[in-house]
């Protein structure tokens, strides 16, 4: 770690700055995430949608969308396991730290590259396909930027610490800090000495979660369960050749 990185790390860890970043900001982000979704669902149900652009272009969407969604799903599962499952639990079932580290880094790197590649295709599609670009709002652009920065920082932290550097066990620092937030016993000291890329990744994720309820990302928290019970939609043809006789014109005299 360079001197500049050390100074920056110390600056965000010391005193009031550390409390604001690693205690206040997580609770603010969590509150906005929960209350924002409640507000959005109550006052903007019709806006709770992905605003699909599949009708405008499908070729790039068929490639980018599965690549991004499957990649981000693996990344999400990896974060849930790494942050919420204590190291003692995996040790208890016979998974050594070395094994966990190798599997997590390998899957995380592949999933991160797939997610970033899929996102790049989706952004390229929105920029180059006219109707899709016209349907892209400023909110969408800000969401894509925030999502890209968060993914890039996470991938860079993984590569820099584990593939280029000598390795870093975030389950001894970041994971206990993350769980302490939900225990209502925040422990900002856990973030002391954490590599700067991991810190920036955590901060960008907190900001992303705060913006989440006000973007199209809300669709991730819903499932079309209503489709299972809604009535069938009946379609009838307007073909005049079907039926017993052609329809009468509006001015045709009705016989008695």
Q: What share of the residues does DSSP label as strand, in percent?
A: under 5%
Mean pLDDT across residues: 85
The count of helical stretches stands at: 9
N-C termini distance: 97 Å
Helix content: 55-70%
Parts with pLDDT < 50 across at least 5 consecutive residues: 3-8
Instruction: Give the radius of gyration.
Output: 25 Å
- Derived from helix and strand composition plus strand pairing, the structural class reads mainly alpha
Shape: elongated
SSE series: HHHHHHHHH
Care to count the β-strands?
0
Please give the largest β-sheet: none
Describe this structure in words.
The chain is an all-alpha fold and 256 residues long. It has 9 helices and no strands. It has helices spanning 3-13, 15-43, 59-84, 87-92, 97-128, 130-134, 138-164, 174-182, 196-211. Helix 5 (97-128) packs antiparallel against helix 7 (138-164). The protein is elongated. 18% of the residues are buried. Mean pLDDT is 85; it is low at 3-8.
């Amino acid at each position: 770690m360079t001197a500049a990185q050390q100074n920056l790390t110390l600056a965000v860890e010391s005193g009031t700055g550390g409390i604001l970043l690693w205690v206040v900001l997580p609770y603010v982000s969590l509150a906005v995430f929960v209350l924002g979704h409640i507000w959005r669902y109550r006052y903007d149900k019709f806006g709770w949608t992905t605003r699909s652009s599949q009708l405008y272009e499908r070729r790039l969407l068929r490639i980018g969308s599965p690549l991004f969604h499957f990649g981000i799903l693996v990344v999400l599962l990896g974060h849930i396991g790494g942050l919420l499952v204590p190291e003692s639990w995996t040790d208890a079932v016979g998974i050594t730290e070395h094994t966990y580290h190798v599997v997590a880094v390998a899957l995380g790197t592949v999933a991160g590259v797939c997610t970033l590649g899929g996102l790049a295709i989706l952004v390229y599609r929105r920029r180059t396909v006219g109707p899709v670009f016209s349907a892209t709002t400023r909110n969408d652009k800000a969401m894509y930027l925030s999502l890209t920065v968060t993914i890039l920082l996470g991938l860079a932290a993984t590569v820099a610490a584990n593939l280029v550097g000598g390795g870093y066990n975030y389950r001894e620092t970041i994971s206990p800090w993350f769980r302490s937030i939900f225990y209502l016993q925040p422990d900002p000291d856990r973030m002391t000495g954490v590599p700067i890329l991991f810190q920036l990744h955590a901060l960008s994720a907190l900001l992303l979660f705060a913006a989440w309820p006000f973007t199209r990302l809300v669709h991730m928290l819903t499932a079309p369960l209503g489709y299972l019970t809604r009535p069938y939609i009946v379609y009838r043809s307007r073909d005049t050749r079907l039926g017993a006789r052609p329809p009468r014109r509006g001015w045709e005299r009705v016989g008695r």
